[in-house]
Amino acid sequence: MATKILVSQPKPQTEKSPYFEVAQKYNVELVFRPFIKIEPMSAKDFRQQKVSIPGHTAIVFTSRHAIDHFFALCKELRVNIPDDMKYFCVSEQVSLYIQKYVQYRKRKNFFPETGLVTDLMPIIAKHHNETYFVPQSSAHTDDMRRMLDEAGVEHDEAVMYYTLPNDFTPDEAFDYNMLVFFSPEGIHSLKKNFPNFEQKDIKVACLGTKTIKAAEEAGIHVDFQPTPELRSVPAIIEAYAKTLKK
Predict the structure, then answer these.
(1) Residue 151: CB partners within 8 Å, gap ≥ 6?
(2) One domain, residues 27 and 103
(3) Is 46 in the same domain as 153?
(4) Number of Cβ within a 10 Å radius of residue 188
(5) Residue 8's domain is classified under what CATH number?
(6) Strands 28-32, 109-110: parallel, antiparallel or unpaired by DSSP?
(7) In the chain, how many domains are there?
(8) In this structure, are residues 60 and 133 in contact, taking their beta carbons and an 8 Å threshold?
(9) Which of 99, 209, 215, 222 is paired with 201 by a 20 to 30 Å CA distance?
């Protein structure tokens, strides 16, 4: 029986994805099943937060979901985004995604090379005269607010989309050899859907310090996480698959 691995995110759109190369090479079965779902917020619910987007001169984006829902809500609210708006993003990948909605200009897009939000803060601090707005998920923490306070900049945050647990059906098999998580919300969803979950011999891989912390707090042992040698999920899966050959 092939080794079965649950990757808690949507299936890649291209068959040339490294995921499938690893699966074929090591004869492992990959099941792409998100533990969380993203839902839009209505303009009515957003207005209840009493936060006005106009007047801000810079937007902080920590994910592509934040970008999608920010521009969707702005359209619904009939908020015009000025051409000179500045965007501060957690990574280059997130920064490049903005061109889906506006003309991309390097002079108004800022991001750290590391892809770490902690390394974004010094960049924001250098632009201390801007007024920042942060679109957030319903599952956000206060970390961003705290870091912006420490950077000494004027800022507002508001929830612009919902991050909710994805429900598993009662008859859905949960017979995996490995689970891969990408966010704390994925861990919370696991515990919600399977309150009696016992890890036993199941290997767990987590991306991000917050995800690892959430897993450990839930009593889950993290077997794999990104390292300089294992920088991607396919690389982590391959490392696990190699242990099965021994």
Answers:
(1) 121, 124, 125, 128
(2) no
(3) yes
(4) 17
(5) 3.40.50.10090
(6) unpaired
(7) 2
(8) yes
(9) 209
Give the strand pairing for 58-61 and 86-89.
Answer: parallel
Confidence check: pLDDT of 1 > 80: no
Q: Are residues 28 and 122 in the same domain?
A: no
Beta strands, E only, the chain: 3-7, 28-32, 36-40, 58-61, 86-89, 109-110, 131-137, 154-165, 178-181, 203-206
Task: Please state, as a whole number, how many other Cβ atoms lie within 10 Å of the Cβ of residue 61.
Answer: 23
**Both 49 and 147 in a single domain?**
yes
Residue 152 gets which letter from DSSP?
T
CB 87 within 8 A of CB 108: yes
Q: Do 91 and 57 share a structural domain?
A: yes
DSSP-derived secondary structure for 41-72? PPHHHHHTT----TT--EEEESSHHHHHHHHH
What span, in angstroms and rounded, lies between the C-alpha atoms of 227 and 127?
32
Q: Which domain holds residue 80?
A: 39-163
Structural contact between residues 121 and 62, judged by C-beta atoms closer than 8 angstroms: no
